[in-house]
Amino acid sequence: MSIFDSALTQLNNAARHIKLPEGLLEKLQQPERIIQLNIPLKKDNGKIELMKGYRVQYNNDLGPYKGGLRFHPQVDMDEVKALAFWMMIKNAVVDLPFGGGKGGIEIDPKNLSVKELERLSREFTKFLAPNIGGGMDVPAPDINTNAKIMDWIADEYIKVQSANLPVGKAGCKVKSEKTQLRAVVTGKSIKNGGSEGREQATGLGGYFVLERLIKKLGLKRPVTVAIQGFGNVGSNMAKILYENGYRIVAVSDVKGGIYDRNNTGFNIDLVRKCKEEKGFLAGCYCIGSVCDLAKKYEDGVISNQDLLELKIDILIPAAIENVITKDNARKIKAKIVFEMANGPTTAEADQILNKRGILLMPDVLANSGGVTVSYFEWLQNMTNKKWSLKKVNNQLKKKMETAFTKVWQISQKEKVNLRTAAYILALERIVAKT
């Protein structure tokens, strides 16, 4: 089953529990628009190369399309449609005034100079400019994109659109109009209109949901956790959980990971620092105040696949799609699977975990803290206001806990798992706007 077909299976499962207007289910099974571009990139040597770019605008019933831009050589349209679909569901679950979108460029940015990367980002923006904007489609960072690239996109978009702004009496563009143009993307640097708290937003939002879940289940502490993926989401989630008394007994990156078989847990602050220095986790077996090579410890090095099958309380897939499948779902020993990656569990694996009594917190709720703070950034840009970090985090906590409560209540009332409950909630909100 393809990733997109798996996503639609999740949609259809939820649709059985809610009466939808005629034609809505069919409408939600395909994106509204797919934009494909051939972008000329002038290389540093003067040669021109054409790069394939795209934007999937899935649905905007709730508001402007919203979702990331990824720069990656192995772009798969099936995957991107699924990701855009999940953004639609995710925004509805957390009650944000956004629809779903996704896009990017088929390129490995590691093969480009900084100047080439900037030229490509700006050229991409020129091509996309008629189809994006604060009231139309609001991209954000994703794989291999960051605040610097979002700053370039926002700057280029402002240049393109400024010619259409009204002119004041003194011959100057209206400042408030120009300020709002920054809302074309989120995930910008703070000095260029970005929001406080954006970097750790996904991890912090996940933490707020996890805390509520543990209280509902009455899970006794200390709680053991394994995290697959140590990028922005995984490393920030690990740090937040470590600081709040969770025992992080295994973490991994693309090259493999480390495992503390004694279940005492790693010093994640040292692990993060060590990885920055060494470049890989297997060299960072940090217990207490000491770091050493994991290979010196029995079973200290662990593969990504073996990490998924550890006997722990909480398994957090925070890397890529489709890591829990029908082939390994019966080997999962965690009490809770908490999805911080997008689409880490296939539809077939979902059914297996559910039958085995393993509780799964779905991605469309668990990792929605990032897009929630992106919404706060967009709102700050649109209203020309600046929020403090305290306000951002307080509002994030409120949004995440409210969404959790509603999903939990639907799950109990309809006697369905949490993923289906989240989809029911999303569909109810979409129906209310159609």
From TrEMBL:
NAD(+) binds at T202, N232. The active site is at K102. The record marks D142 as: Important for catalysis. Keywords: NAD, Nucleotide-binding, Oxidoreductase. It comes from the Bacteria. The keyword Lipoprotein does not apply. It comes from Candidatus Daviesbacteria bacterium RIFCSPHIGHO2_02_FULL_39_12. Residues 195-433 form the Glutamate/phenylalanine/leucine/valine/L-tryptophan dehydrogenase C-terminal domain. Belongs to the Glu/Leu/Phe/Val dehydrogenases family. Coiled coil: none annotated. Substrate binds at K66, K90, S374. One of its GO terms (biological process) is L-glutamate catabolic process. This is Glutamate dehydrogenase. CDD domains: NAD_bind_1_Glu_DH. Pfam families: ELFV_dehydrog (PF00208), ELFV_dehydrog_N (PF02812). One of its GO terms (molecular function) is nucleotide binding. The keyword ATP-binding does not apply.
